Request: fold
Amino acid sequence: MTLFDLIIRSMRKNVKHYYLYFFALIFSTGLYFVFSTLQYDEATLKVMASDASFNTAFKVAGMLLLFIVVVFAFYANQIFLKRRSKEIGVYQLIGLTRKAVARLLVIENILLGLGALLLGICGGALIARLFLIILLKLIGFAGMVNISFSIEAAIQTIIIFSLLIVLTSIQIVRTVYNHTLLELFRADQQAEHPREKNSIISAIIAVMGISLIVYGYSLSGRMTEDTLLLDMLLVLGSTILGTYLLFRVTISWLFCTIRKNKDGHLGLKNSVSLAPLMHRMKANANSLTLITILSAMTLTMVAVSYSLYYSAKADTRAQMPYDFIFENNPQAAKSFSKELEKADISFVYQPIETVKLLGKVGSEDGKDSMLLLPAEQLRQSGIDVILPDQGQAIHYDAHANMNLDSDKQTYPGTVEIEHIGGTTTLELTQLVVKNAINFNVHGNQYVVSESLMNDLKEKLPRADFNEVIVLDTYQIANEQARAKAAELYEKYISEGEYMPNFHTEYKGYLQLFGIFIFIAAFLGLVFLIATGSILYFKQMTEAEQEKQSYKTLRQLGFDVKDIMGGIIRKQLFVFAIPLAIGLLHSIFAVKAAKVLLISDITVPSAIAMGAYIFIYFLFAVLTINYYKRIVKGALKS
Amino acid sequence: MNQSTTQSTVLHAQNVRKSYGTRSNVQQVLKGINLRVLEGEFVGIMGPSGSGKTTLLNVLATIDRPTEGSILIQNVDIAKMKDAELSLFRRDKLGFIFQDYNLLDTLTVKENILLPISLGKIKKKDVEQQFHTITSILGIEELAHKYPHEISGGQKQRTSAGRALIHKPSMVFADEPTGALDSKSASDLLGTMEDINKKQGVTIMMVTHDPVASSYCNRVVFLKDGTIYSELYRGDKTRQAFFKDILNVQAVLGGDNVDAI
Reply:
């Protein structure tokens, strides 16, 4: 039998261990190819050319993708080598030299890698169009979708994955050369034995792990602008360290305490879950921490970008309650109205008279530029505002939440306005987190009653900063008509003037966040597959190692159902704990990122997290099924 | 038959056959075994390699199913039971001691021993009482909180015996229990088993190829090529005399096939 026959034979024999690894490799190759195809695609290039941030986002995402793929390939390869260490040992035992064994494994690896590369590129080419359609749909691009096989993308993918094959081959050679025969044969018995540790020190470290996480959480809620970077690093550092300690010490300590209290009366379920988990805590702490942190990152990324996309309309609306406005330009407004009528676009027109003045808000020393808006007129134009009483003002500010400064205005407060013949003090009743007029009109927005505004207008001295501004506002209910109107509006914008309108702004956000959500979902998917597969591989290995225990249990008369009860408990721990902690981390991270958004993001975040959890648990189900097969067959072997 | 007639039958196997393989290549391992084990007996099963010792034990112990024949344990035909019923039956009525102990590495001695009653609804106080009794007979009281890797082979096998006895089974099956032990540990364990058999009246069936081990039994059944070749009763003989008898049968039986001591 030649070496090549041996390779083919061993690959055929190992196919049931291989298929998932192979599939994961194909999957990541395919996705990488799709990603690079999109990068080189003309349609996307056209969109991206308009905005440099798209380009950067794509580049960063490409690097992250690469990073994930490399880490995953290494990890999976390591697990597989460990699984096959006995086989490697047997080859050496029957007289193959280390060199021959290394050659055998490397050729296998290359065959596998090349196969995955080929299938990945073919598969990727098939689905690239689908992804392009999704991307263009997300960014609201309506046009022909045409995509051809990208040679550049294929070359890039081939280069990257060939390097990956080389790297994993080096890993294989190192494993073969650096392990003694004895180590190879004992690889699957390396269960650690929990030692009776100093319980006081353990307890202290255990509590410290939790404290670090809590500290990270609380700090994330009160980061200030001046020390933002330092705060962020502190939050990251303490959370990651805390998570590690949690897995390494806190949970072990907790388990030890529970087990001690049971005093030998452990019960079947705990014997199959708690006990083996305790014996692997040291080995698992690293990977569980990694998976937790990465899950948290992915969850945060997906949740925030989905929230941004989901809230694009609401957020734009909060900043721009009117579709179009003209500021002190009645001629243009008149002409715009005529044009709209001519184009047969139905609209709501309302002129609003506002007063801009200087006022002292709260106990501040300086004076702020205030824009007083009459509530009655706003209401007439269809804006939902609160009608303040005489002598009251309501602050409207869409960006209030984004202000990280500690010296925030408190409500209720006061506003003092100086005018001819004295000072008028208004009661500032509350803050509403949205704008009462489009954000491009200068001045902090305060809604008052019309009579109060008129009263103040009479009393004001004619100075530059005391100005009456007439705003001509337009609302167009129909979306298509609004888009058409946006085109008409264009020509009233003179050189250098900033006159945004709702439609154009909204489309811009949609495009940007469309790219974000696409990249986040793309990375998230790759990520999820990688973490899920790693957990699955690890559990497969554990299941094989624990086969004898299951056999013994079956012989003692426990049936498959009883044992599976314990195994499900163990899998819940292995899968659910990293997910739960990662989820908690990400909830706090999303909360900290909430300053980016105006609307409430509970719903979109929950949707994104829900989708993540659902896919994640598919891997748990796969794993449990694998265990079930092992337990069912345990008596027969 | 010199057994007293007041003893009831614990196990009754009739015409038990077991074959493996496909239709074209059938290998008959058990070719019609008839065996009756009475309550309180300590039965040894001997025979050369490949004679079907372990297969017989597995079939009688409900771990494997016979191809043909009936097996009654306490008048219940286990050959007709479903898998789930068999599991329950094993858990309630049978105890096992294996050659390589088969303790769960991740459990302490006490946890291992208490495993068979972990699903039962026995009061914790009674369990403690039972545990205390058994471990003091086996002499492993001090080891309760040790892990298997921290104790010797003999101690592991005592733990395994403890696990087989904790739920007061109708019958204990032992598969080469001394196979992995040194002679001192082996004779200690066998002495204890004999003790338990006599004092507690536990019925034991033990597969072994070691004549010394089987000399501790009341009766030794010899298998050859899947059938019962002969049986020896110890009666009132000393262990030494019984040992000689066993050796004699073995010499006739096996020739080269007999595993030497």
